[in-house]
Specification:
Length: 141
């Protein structure tokens, strides 16, 4: 990570809610979900919030030799968004401690705030991570 990546850094990302991100579509293989409202699923929203943080980190990373993985989310989803809504996701770096980064993240659509909370990511060396993954796939700790 660049030394310029530090607490106080702010970023913004916009994304349109795709139809596949709604509760009935995301959970199409769960019958009772097909009857649920056609709104942005919280699970997909979490992914969008994570992607916003990744976009905020990218200018400061040595990609692809440095990558990041989400390790913690604490979001409150407070309002529904329909498919086609444009979300504005804003974030701020709160802490950078070694490889761990903590963000404050909030999201809005045209009608107002829909979500907010914190997210943590860990910067990884993909070669080392993939070696660890291979060991786990082989049943080793």
């Amino acid at each position: 990570m660049s030394p310029d990546f530090r607490p106080g850094l702010r970023f913004e990302w916009t994304v349109t809610v795709p139809v596949r991100a709604t509760v009935p579509q995301l959970y199409h293989d769960t019958p009772f979900c097909l009857d649920m409202p056609d709104v942005l699923a919280t699970g997909y929203m979490v992914g969008m919030m994570e992607l916003a943080c990744i976009h905020g980190m990218m200018p400061y990373m040595d990609w692809p030799r440095e990558q990041s993985l989400g390790t913690r989310v604490d979001f409150e989803h407070v309002a529904p968004s329909p498919p086609g809504a444009v979300l504005r996701i804003e974030g701020e770096v709160l802490e950078v401690e070694g490889r761990r980064v903590k963000f404050r993240v909030e999201a809005w659509d045209d009608a107002g705030r829909i979500a907010g909370g914190t997210h943590e990511r860990c910067v990884i060396d993909p070669d080392k991570f993939n070696a660890k993954l291979a060991r786990r796939k082989a049943g080793q700790p």
